[in-house]
Amino acid sequence: GADGHDFEPVVPELGLPPELPVRFVFPHAPRQPVTLNGGMVMRAWYDVYGLDGPRREDEAGIRAAQTRVEALLAREKARGVPAARLVLAGFSQGGAIALQAGLRHPERLAGVLALSCYLPLADTLAAEAHPANHDVPLFMAHGAWDQMIPLARAARSRDVLTGLGYRVEWREYPMPHAVCAEELGDVGAWLRAVLRP
Predict the structure, then answer these.
(1) What number of other Cβ atoms are within 10 A of residue 11's Cβ?
(2) Per-residue pLDDT for 132 more than 80?
């Protein structure tokens, strides 16, 4: 989780054309204790118990974050933006929640962008996925040297998704748990494609 302002500087790096009607909403993750960090209160979408993978996940916290994202989607739709023009995007926990909410959303979205993350509650997706987003464009990218979420864990998430019939556009970059210029260029190209008028 992070402060919503953390990714504002990335927008100009995406190279989106000025004529493309795009508005970015960067929500703040709530402040809560994170077990992995000794219970320190920090911005997080859900609690993290350890870096050992999905053996123990904060299901209640993940589902609460999904509800928050659903409220954001509802707000944008109330502003007149059709669901088919909305992209859910996130980095790390934000990317995990984008996958969690986007693949269960009852209206077709423009896309789901999941950077440096994994698929949370993977065992529940087959039963909970909404058919409206079974063919949603999915872009996943990960750093080969990611020390927070190992590349192998992200690749397993990709494999679960493809095994369920999702088409995942997958990219790897020579970086740690971060974003890089090449990745931002690829994200910008993907956004231009999925948001084409």
Answers:
(1) 14
(2) yes
Instruction: Please name which of 87, 91, 63, 88 lies closest in space to residue 1, comparing C-alpha atoms.
Output: 91
Residue 24, classed as helix, strand or coil, is coil
d(CA 32, CA 1): 10
- Amino acid (1-letter code) at residue 61: G
Nearest to 10 by CA among 140, 180, 193, 134: 180
Q: Do the bridges between strand 31-34 and strand 40-43 make them parallel or antiparallel, or are there none, so unpaired?
A: antiparallel
Calculate the dihedral angle through the C-alpha atoms of 37, 45, 63, 150, rounding to the nearest 10 degrees.
-60
pTM: predicted TM-score of the whole model, two decimal places: 0.96
Residues forming the active site: 92, 146, 177
Strand partners, 41: 33
> For the domain 4-194, what is the CATH superfamily, name and number?
Alpha/Beta hydrolase fold, catalytic domain (3.40.50.1820)
Model pLDDT for residues 143-167, shown as the tens digit of each residue: 999 999 999 999 999 999 999 999 9
Q: For the chain, what are the domain ranges?
A: 4-194
